[in-house]
């Protein structure tokens, strides 16, 4: 039958679980538990995935906003090296910095922290599910390596 794909096309198949069921590939990231440490907020990043690029199915790290900035800058650089990857979609923005919150005590207010947490979660899920960025080793390290610092 023309137009149908052959089962031997070399495509990577999802893992078989039971009978004919094949577990779909997915990645889901949640950001919770913001904690103030000196003059910054640390966020708990929990990842659950079946993507084969990762060592485990679930892992937890803590990251601060500056580390997200470093990750985004690295991904921007990777995109500049391979501009055709833009066809998969642009790099999602980080939540913005409110100047009064950035330099005053406002950055430690519950509303600001919650808005930032939501934005960071959207950012991470967008890049982890992006058809190009999902394969960048720097992202894998960012999500998996507990003791690594990305400043």
Automatic annotation (TrEMBL):
PROSITE patterns given in the database record: PX (PS50195)
Name of the protein in its database record: PX domain-containing protein
Family annotation (InterPro entries): PX_dom (IPR001683), PX_dom_sf (IPR036871)
Sequence ranges assigned to domain PX in this UniProt record: 21-150
Highest taxon in the source lineage: Eukaryota
SMART domains referenced in this protein's UniProt entry, alphabetically: PX
Gene Ontology molecular function, alphabetical: phosphatidylinositol binding
GO cellular component: endosome
